[in-house]
């Protein structure tokens, strides 16, 4: 088990656009295992390589009720429903705070698996929210950017207070 150190907000590495994966090799497999070990230790349900300081387009989701964790390499959303949902979100890079965010209710994601095979997946509910949240992170968009300035400022102040108390 290799739990990696998390990059915490407001670290500027969370604002970088992650690079596409081009090599589907042993180092990618190691990264995928490290992401899973780290998200489970956090604890969390989703993680990207940038959350551990690696600027690569890799996401691991370990959702409750799912039969197995799943790693998505170079994921992209190719379709979003017009219908939206509000869902409570947070981040392992900003522990202790969460807020409701509006997202598309359903998405279609194209990605490569750990072996480089092209795949596609349609998702709704929590899985759709997680895809949008984590792919935003790969694009350098931290989840709180979806909040109004007032809600974002209050959430950051709450987070900073929690951090001072640790």
Give the key terms.
166 residues, alpha+beta, 5-stranded antiparallel sheet, 31% strand
Protein architecture, described:
This protein has helices at 26-41, 125-138, 149-164, and strands spanning 46-48, 58-61, 70-80, 84-91, 94-104, 106-112, 118-124. The model has no long low-confidence stretch (mean pLDDT 97). Strand 6 and strand 7 (118-124) form a beta hairpin. The strands form two sheets. A five-stranded antiparallel beta sheet has the order 1-2-3-6-7. Strands 4-5 form a two-stranded antiparallel ribbon. The chain has 166 residues and is of the alpha+beta class.
- End-to-end separation: 26 Å
- The average pLDDT score comes to 97
Radius of gyration: 15 Å
Helix content: 25-40%
Unreliable segments of 5+ consecutive residues: none
Coarse shape? globular
Number of strands: 7
* H-E order: HEEEEEEEHH
Kindly estimate the percentage of residues that lie in beta strands according to DSSP. Answer: 25-35%
User: Oligomerization state of this entry?
Assistant: single chain
Structural class: alpha+beta
In DSSP terms, counting alpha (H) and pi (I) runs of 4 or more, how many helices? 3
Largest sheet at a glance?
5 strands, antiparallel
């Amino acid at each position: 088990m290799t739990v990696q150190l998390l990059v915490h907000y407001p670290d500027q590495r969370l604002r970088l656009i992650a690079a596409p994966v081009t090599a589907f090799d042993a180092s990618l497999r190691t990264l995928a295992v490290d992401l899973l070990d780290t998200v489970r230790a956090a604890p969390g349900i989703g993680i990207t390589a940038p959350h551990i300081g690696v600027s690569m387009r890799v996401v691991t989701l370990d959702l409750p009720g799912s039969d197995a964790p799943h790693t998505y390499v170079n994921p992209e959303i190719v379709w979003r429903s017009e219908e939206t949902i509000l869902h409570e979100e947070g981040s392992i890079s900003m522990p202790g705070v969460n807020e409701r965010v509006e997202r598309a209710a359903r998405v279609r994601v194209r990605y490569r698996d750990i072996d480089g095979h092209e795949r596609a997946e349609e998702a709704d509910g929590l899985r759709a929210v997680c895809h949008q949240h984590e792919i935003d992170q790969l694009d350098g968009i931290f989840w709180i950017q979806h909040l109004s300035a007032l809600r974002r400022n209050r959430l950051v102040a709450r987070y900073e207070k929690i951090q001072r108390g640790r």
